[in-house]
Each structure stands twice: as structure tokens, then as C-alpha cells.
């Protein structure tokens, strides 16, 4: 199964991607993780990407496409994959579609997680991430058992530098301008499946599994 997750920042795509990966045994390809890894290692691509990320802008298509298509060629993607955060623009979608078509492995579905701007701000300004294992938390909806400490690995919980309200609103503006056209793009190709994501995590996951029920046996 090869799927793409769409939705504004704070829609819960990352959380749902991890749950889908566990259920179906698929790798999650998260461009945010790829970019942050390059930034942390100080690679030339990472330094270029950081300039855009710090402003709340999208990384240019040529950088993103190169990173993601290279990742999709790795062995663990042969059984399928979950793309989280890519494509973000129509040109990226076209590049992805061409590459997958040439490889004989077209996309199966695109899940569009829908959530209001008000909920996005509430979720992201309260979001914490474990600095060790990456597990997400939310002070308003899903707090840790011990303040500042990951329930799973005991790592330190931190607020992402791009989760202040001004940057969040900027990211939403960029999303509307550059990524929302993808909804129409994938709808025209018969791939789009809308998910109401303004609900508790488990409810959203149940809706997501139901939306994919015609692709795989959900009881398997």
C-alpha cells in the first residue's frame, strides 16, 4: 500500500502515520524528519533547508524531491510506504507521480486530514516532542504522566522552535497557498479520501482505517 497524508500542520498526520505504520508494517517517510536530520548534521542541503524552515516557508521543490525520491528507492519501501509531509506542492506531486508510474508502483490513496485553524493553533502551541524517541505529547489533549518527561523512554520533552503562534499562522498561510491545490489535484485523479481529524486520536485512527478498508483487510 502506497499512501500520502495531506492536511495542515497540527492535523495529526504524524501521529496517524505512526499508527498506520504499526498496523500495516509500512515505513513512514516524513520529510520533516529528513529535513531536521540534515539540519542537525549540518549538510549542505540541511543548511539550505534551514533558511526556509526558520521562516515557516516550504523547502524548495528541487531539494525536497531529490531527498524523498532517493529515500523511496531504499529496500524497505518495496512493500509500500506512508508519505507524511510530501508532496507539498503540485510540482512535487507531479514529480512523485512520474517517478512512481515509471517504477510501476502508483499511489493507492491520498488521505486528507481536515481540521480548523483554531484547533491547529490550540494543538501546536501546546505540543511537546521527546528529544530522544520523537514521541509527541500535547499539554491540552495528551499530557505526559510526569511533567517534561517522556512516558516511554524517559527522555526530555521539548517545544519545537517553529511552534510559536506567529510561525504557526504563517505556516497555515503557506499551506493554503501552496498545498491546498493538491486536494483538487488528487481528487481529479480519484485518489482523495477526506478524514475528519477534529476528534480524539483513537477516533481519527478508526476513521482512517475505515477509509483504507477497500485496500487491505483491516482485520489482518
Topology:
Blueprint lengths: L1 E5 L6 H12 L3 E3 H11 L2 H12 L5 H12 L8 E4 L5 H13 L6 E6 L2 H9 L1 E4 L5 E3 L18 E2 L6 H15 L1 H8 L3 E5 L4 H11 L9
Parallel strand pairs: 1-3, 1-4, 2-3, 4-8
Antiparallel strand pairs: 5-6, 5-7
Helix pairs in contact: 1-9, 2-3, 4-5, 6-7
Please give a structural write-up:
The longest helix has 15 residues, at 165-179. The two termini are 14 Å apart. This protein has 220 residues and is an alpha/beta fold. The strands form two sheets. The protein has a five-stranded parallel β-sheet, sandwiched between helices. Strands 6-5-7 form a three-stranded antiparallel β-sheet. 47% of the residues lie in helices and 15% in strands. It has a domain at 2-115 and 175-211: Rossmann fold (3-Layer(aba) Sandwich). The protein has nine helices and eight strands. Helix 4 (61-72) packs parallel to helix 5 (90-102).
Annotation keywords:
single chain, about 220 residues, five-stranded parallel β-sheet, three-stranded antiparallel β-sheet, 9 helices
Which whole number gives the mean pLDDT? 87
Radius of gyration: 17 Å
Tally of DSSP helical segments? 9
Structural class from helices and strands?
alpha/beta
Q: Give the name of the CATH architecture of the domain at 2-115 and 175-211.
A: 3-Layer(aba) Sandwich
Instruction: Please mark out the parts with pLDDT under 50 across 5 or more consecutive residues, or reply none.
Output: none
What's the quick description here?
This protein has 220 residues and is an alpha/beta fold. The protein has helices spanning 13-24, 31-41, 44-55, 61-72, 90-102, 117-125, 165-179, 181-188, 201-211, and strands at 2-6, 28-30, 81-84, 109-114, 127-130, 136-138, 157-158, 192-196. The chain contains 9 helices and 8 strands.
Amino acid at each position: 500500500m502506497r499512501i500520502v497524508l495531506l492536511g495542515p500542520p497540527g492535523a495529526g498526520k504524524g501521529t496517524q502515520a505512526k499508527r498506520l505504520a504499526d498496523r500495516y508494517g509500512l515505513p513512514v517517510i516524513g520529510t520533516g524528519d529528513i529535513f531536521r536530520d540534515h539540519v542537525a548534521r549540518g549538510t549542505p542541503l540541511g543548511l539550505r533547508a534551514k533558511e526556509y524552515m526558520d521562516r515557516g516557508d516550504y523547502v524548495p521543490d528541487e531539494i525536497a524531491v531529490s531527498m524523498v525520491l532517493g529515500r523511496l528507492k531504499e529496500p524497505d519501501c518495496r512493500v509500500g510506504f506512508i508519505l507524511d509531509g510530501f508532496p507539498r506542492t503540485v510540482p512535487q506531486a507531479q514529480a512523485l507521480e512520474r517517478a512512481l508510474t515509471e517504477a510501476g508502483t502508483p499511489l493507492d490513496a491520498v488521505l486528507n486530514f481536515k481540521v480548523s485553524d483554531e484547533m491547529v493553533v490550540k494543538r501546536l502551541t501546546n505540543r511537546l516532542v521527546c528529544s530522544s524517541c520523537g514521541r509527541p505529547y500535547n499539554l491540552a489533549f495528551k499530557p505526559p504522566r510526569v511533567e517534561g518527561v517522556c512516558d516511554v523512554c524517559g527522555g526530555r520533552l521539548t517545544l519545537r522552535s517553529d511552534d510559536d503562534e506567529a510561525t504557526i499562522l504563517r505556516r497555515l498561510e503557506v499551506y493554503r497557498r501552496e498545498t491546498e491545490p493538491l486536494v483538487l489535484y488528487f481528487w481529479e485523479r480519484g485518489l482523495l479520501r477526506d478524514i475528519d481529524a477534529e476528534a480524539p486520536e483513537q477516533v481519527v485512527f478508526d476513521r482512517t482505517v475505515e477509509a483504507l478498508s477497500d485496500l487491505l483487510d483491516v482485520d489482518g
